[in-house]
Design brief:
Length: about 325
């Protein structure tokens, strides 16, 4: 599989990364934990070397499941996790918290759950608007100096926030949502990351299921699935009317993919990876079947004609790509 470097770090990883939000078991529909765990080992065998998780996935479930699935193969992969939320005892999220002491404390919990001495890349999951970024960066620098993390970065930060963080340290990466139905990052964040050589980690590469070919007009989500709200990071992607139009787009994109003997999911991943600013495209893989399909997309390159045909589908179906929609953070 193609290897890419995350920003200006020494982290050289597979172009596709294994996202584990689905392993939270509490937010992303039904999942067979056994199958997902088996897919972790199979992913390494197929050349995937980056695994992304977060303490909030569950909370804690994803880190614990991933650690067990990795087992003795931990040192074969780049391990990424995220902190930046406060929790009640249940545990439930009670808000964002990226204060110095909180980051230090939460990072220790991540190390324990992941059964590792060091995290390769620690990210601040969302900006904490009540804490100066200078304080947050000081905490990350402390963790790096203490050898608890190798590199640090952020997630869901805009350019202004990235620039402020850079005044107090150096970010390895910014992890933000990016897929065919959500191109907000093309306006500012992707160009900034490319120019500054900051790694860009794209999550939601398959549109949270919209680009897998698995949905139909009758698809519904259980009430504890975050998509049941209709919103996807402030975009109305799962509300009835947009959802119906997006499914029409997906059907037409399947035809473009089929012309290359590829699937819709493979087309979606190839599209994300075709952006030169993208360091890694994260994708959830529930089983070995999904794994094999996703891996086959890693080395496919869409040409200009393909990309123009994709854009024409969106235009003709009247489905926005949200390039000019402000990101809610």
């Amino acid at each position: 599989m193609e290897q890419r470097t995350i920003g200006d770090t020494d982290l050289v990883t597979s172009a596709l990364g294994f996202g584990t939000w689905e392993m939270s078991t509490t937010a992303y529909g039904e999942i067979d934990v056994g199958e997902a765990s088996s897919a972790v080992a199979a992913a390494i065998d197929h050349g995937i070397t980056l695994f992304d998780t977060a303490e909030v996935y569950g909370p804690y479930h994803s880190e614990e499941i991933l650690a067990k699935a990795l087992g003795s193969r931990r040192n074969e992969v780049t391990l990424v996790t995220k902190v930046g939320f406060a929790y009640s005892d249940e545990p439930r999220v009670t808000g964002r918290d990226s204060t110095y002491d909180h980051i230090i404390e939460r990072a220790e919990g991540c190390l324990q759950r992941l059964d590792t001495d060091v995290v390769d890349l620690l990210l601040i999951h969302w900006p904490d608007h009540n804490t100066p970024f200078e304080e947050t960066m000081r905490g990350l620098e402390r963790l790096k100096a203490d050898g608890k993390i190798r590199h640090y970065g952020v997630s869901n930060f805009n350019v202004e926030m990235l620039e402020e963080c850079e005044r107090h340290g150096h970010l390895a990466a910014n992890q933000v949502g990016y897929h065919l139905f959500d191109r907000r990052m093309e306006a500012e964040v992707l160009p900034y990351c490319q120019q500054s050589n900051t790694g860009f980690m794209a999550y939601g590469s398959l549109g949270f299921g919209l680009l897998t070919g698995a949905f139909t007009p009758e698809t519904t989500f259980v009430d504890w699935d975050w998509r049941s709200s209709g919103k996807a990071f402030e975009l109305p992607l799962f509300e009835p009317e947009p959802f119906a139009k997006e499914l029409q787009v997906a059907e037409r994109l399947k035809e473009i993919a089929a012309g290359h003997d590829k699937s819709l999911a493979q087309l979606a991943l190839a599209w994300v990876l075709g952006n030169p600013a993208v360091s890694v495209a994260l994708v959830g893989m529930r089983n070995e079947r999904e794994l094999s399909e996703n891996v086959a997309a890693a080395d496919w390159r869409l040409n200009d004609e393909d990309r123009a045909a994709i854009d024409l589908v969106f235009e003709e179906e009247g489905v926005p790509t949200h390039v000019d929609t402000p990101q809610a953070i």
